[in-house]
């Protein structure tokens, strides 16, 4: 008599395999648990919309400067104009964030940023055409951005638990990168219209109101300590000493400075679009952000990595290699593809830099350390603009784009060998069932 085998074992094996694949995909997907915290949702929503406008302006200003001067050096100098205000107000604003209600500080600084955007709109409508005025407005806007960024970074660990800080930072960077795609594309479209610069600045002014509204709806976030007898300068010095005493912190800053100053090619995009690719400025400006978004979609694993210093170094190495290769091609689409790969690596490194800072610092010092972080993260690209613009004027586009990235790669490899505490840094794996804090309500 002929019998047939039961398919049950094979079926069970297939089911177990599919279940394992499903669990792996869920584990790799973007972690959205921080959205369960109402205060964090409000912070993220306002930041996401306003950053679209911010990116419109960040693309429009260098395009306007390049139209007026036809010089990448002037584009780099425009970025440098905000460096001193960024350093001063980033450091001092971080100290203020450790003494006052962080929501009020965030709102006040954001209001100044919005007012400067209205000033950019006015100069475009009046067709003043002054590079000096643009640099002045950029300087004031950078100062207010530095204060608001220090306050915002210090707010996040107060509204989400420590185990979800990497996920919250990933969501923040993802929202920013989505804006970094939408903003440049919108800027490219708006600038091409009659009176296009005015339209671009007007769009920023309208979108930025979302940040003002969402900040007002945040709960009060007072300082946890009141250093009444210490001045702001002394508090800044204490923050710098705290960083200097911890190799994990200062190394994360040093790696970021090297990656930005030596490898960021943003100031070269107007020249590259005009002379090498014959168009495509919007694509160049948004390509890095597209890569970061793609990486964020599968970023669930980021919070499970214990050796965050090591992972940061690998991510920065991948960033520099992709940037160096992008500077050697005459194909717009190959360059964009490599910039997308660089953006994926940048998302990973950015999350680890921010998370290391926020989890290694006590709350009473987070404002100051976030101020230093703001100076490094925002100041690095400005120095990169000057470095790239000056090199392009002296040596040509290719060496300015790829040469610095290769130097950065060598420095990162040397750092991995020299600073062993950073290479061995182990955070421990947060518990997967981390409980959410009781949400604060406005």
Helix fraction, binned, reads over 70%
The total count of helices amounts to 17
- Rounded mean pLDDT score: 80
Distance between the termini: 77 Å
Q: Based on DSSP secondary structure assignment, what is the total number of beta strands?
A: 0
**What is the chain-wise order of helices and strands?**
HHHHHHHHHHHHHHHHH
Give the overall silhouette.
globular
Give Rg in angstroms: 23 Å
Q: Could you describe the largest sheet, including whether it forms a barrel?
A: none
Class inferred from helices and paired strands: mainly alpha
Q: Which regions contain 5 or more consecutive residues with pLDDT less than 50?
A: 1-6, 14-26, 429-442
**Percent of residues in beta strands:** under 5%
Structure overview:
The N terminus and C terminus are likely disordered. This protein is mainly α. It has 17 helices and no strands.
Concise synopsis of the structure shown:
This protein has 442 residues and is mainly α.
Question: Could you list some keywords that capture this structure?
Answer:
mainly alpha; 442 residues; single chain; disordered C terminus; globular; 17 helices; 0% strand
Write the layout of secondary structure elements.
Layout lengths: L7 H21 L9 H32 L2 H9 L2 H15 L4 H24 L5 H29 L5 H27 L4 H21 L15 H13 L2 H17 L5 H8 L4 H16 L11 H19 L5 H29 L2 H33 L1 H22 L1 H4 L19
Helix pairs in contact: 2-3, 2-6, 2-7, 2-8, 3-15, 4-6, 4-9, 4-15, 5-6, 5-8, 6-15, 7-8, 7-12, 7-14, 9-15, 10-13, 10-14, 10-15, 10-16, 12-14, 13-14, 13-16, 15-16
